[in-house]
Structure prediction request, 242 residues.
Amino acid sequence: MSGRIVAVVPAYDEEAAIGAVVAEIHAVDPAIDVVVVDDGSTDATSAAAAAAGAAVVRLPFNLGIGAAVQTGFRYALDHGYDVAVRLDGDGQHDATELPKLLGPLERDEADVVTGSRFRDADDSYRPPLGRRLGITWFAKLVSLLARQRVTDTTSGFQALNRRAIALFARDYPSDYPEVEATVLLIKHRLRLLEVPVTMREREHGSSSITFLRSVYYAFKVTLALLVAMARRYAVPSEEAHR
Ligand SMILES: Nc1nc2c(ncn2[C@@H]2O[C@H](COP(=O)(O)OP(=O)(O)OP(=O)(O)O)[C@@H](O)[C@H]2O)c(=O)[nH]1
Ligand SMILES: [Mg+2]
Prediction:
């Protein structure tokens, strides 16, 4: 892949997993810089990330996943990276699959490439019921709004070119942000492509999403999507951010 690549890794209390995540990315390609955004962790996430060779941006408080990811894109934009890849700090995304995400960007077939768990019919990933319902609902809704088939609206495994980095550095939703972010992309006429990936189960720590919370999020994010559709947008120009 030509151009400089940064891996943006949001992490909240991931001291047990973060070192291996950074090492795996470097094992795939040592030229990929890694920035871990430590979202106000109470454990040794920052130290573990730095020890593994990542740059660390530490947020002073826990700001939530959306703000953590946006901080990472801001970092990518300010440091002049051509491509950003985003992986979770809990080790669920398999860095060896990065080339699948980077290929279409390299060939300029898309502005954002998302790793989808649901593109392959035989995929073994089975989320809990509450989440599964949410996943189906949002896949239908987002596909309708985007006028293209989107199967995984909550995947945080993505590769982005500079146009998309510039957009997300400026504007990124909070709380379950990936669903709304997809609509944001479409509204800005950026090209989105999904490629099939497999995702691992969480090995350490705990999930942020309980059943009740998924019901709450389903309402909240649906509302946010409708508002996002009604908003007026300008196609981002990189120069506007300089
Ligand atoms: N829980 C949580 N995670 C955060 C926060 N800020 C950043 N993150 C990171 O965001 C990534 C995704 O969060 P997860 O809780 O794993 O969400 P998920 O992958 O949808 O849920 P699981 O399948 O249970 O892992 C992880 O790398 C977290 O460390 C936050 O405020 N809360
Ligand atoms: Mg996770």
